[in-house]
Amino acid sequence: MAFHERGQKFLNELPGIKHDLPVSPTMFQALFTLTSEQSKASLEDIARIIEKDQGLTVRILTMANSAYYGLQSQVSSIHRAVILLGLKEIRRLVLLLNIRSLERRLDPDLFDVAAHWRHQVTVGHAAKIMATHTPDIDPGELFTIGLLHDLGKVIIALYRPQDWRIILELSATKNLPLFIAEDAYWGLDHALIGSMTLKSWFLPASLTEPINWHHAPELAQGYAVQARMIRLVDVLVRHQADTRDDEGGWPDEELSARDMRTLRLPEDLGQTLIPDLLASSRTDLFLQGLGITEASRSA
User: Of 103, 112, 145, 105, nearest to 126 (Cα)?
Assistant: First the structure.
């Protein structure tokens, strides 16, 4: 089978991944509906849906009681967690914990889960801060997009490990950014794979489209600003955290300068945002809450 045909076949199979999730995608759909601006659902209604899954309930309460949130008293119920953390934060936790459950089947020699999530969480936090400088952009939503922007890498490594290995080797030997190596190999990249996966989980376009186009924001109709902000933060984090793009080439520094100008962000933000974030404990505390430690490469 030609490699591009192989990529298309994988793309067609992505909706089936929802059957491997411990939490049904219909719960995602219900949560997004119940927590929408138009919803008249009560906090009790939302808590009742989550509490149907005992394992998820335990994991959410563990995260809610972590040092990341710094709550003054112990949270012992989902209803209380929703009140203290807010509907959108609970929705985000359900998503992340679902993805974490998938990662337990990853080969730790093929995919460094801790490094992956460190990058995701740092990008998410930086994007959230950057969004406060941009009118009409929801910082919380951009945080979620940042946390999920590289989900496609997890999906490829989990369901197509041999293809993932070849792509990594191609990226390294040709000194190519990973998304370019992916496109050269099978005609699609992890951004599209992550977006298509999330669409099959009934997530809205406001999340899936910026993820889909975060390497080509000029093509993101309706969500170009969000996609460009994620690309910008992605590049800034990789440069300032001294991280190569999955063993491939360095991101383009001039690209980030152009994005800063296009987004009309403060000139000094690029020099201060990531260093200040890396110097803080925010990312470490979030990772600890998710049960991720640098000492372990596996989920």
Answer: 145
pTM above 0.85, yes or no: yes
Dist CA 92 CA 202 (whole Å)? 14
Residue 19 CB burial class (10 angstroms; 0-12, 13-18, ≥19): exposed
Q: What is the DSSP string of 112-160?
A: -HHHHHHHHHHHHHHHHHHHTTSTT--HHHHHHHHHHTTHHHHHHHHH-
Nearest to 153 by CA among 248, 257, 65: 248
- Whose CA is closest to 90, among 42, 121, 56? 56
Tell me if the domain spanning 3-21+108-289 has CATH number 2.60.120.260.
no
Characterize 91-105 residue by residue with b for buried, 16 or more Cβ atoms within 10 angstroms of its Cβ, and e for exposed: bbbbbbbbbbbbbee
272 token code pair: 């201060």
User: Using one digit for the tens of pLDDT, what is the confidence trace for 16-48?
Assistant: 888 787 777 777 777 777 766 677 778 888 888
Taking only Cα atoms into account, the Rg of the chain, rounded to an integer number of angstroms, comes to: 19
Q: How far is CA 283 from CA 19, 121, 164, 167, 275, in A?
A: 31, 6, 27, 28, 12
**CA 165 vs CA 26, 53, 106: distances in Å:** 33, 35, 13
Distance CA 256, CA 262 (A): 10
Query: What CA–CA distance (Å, rounded) separates 195 from 234?
Result: 17
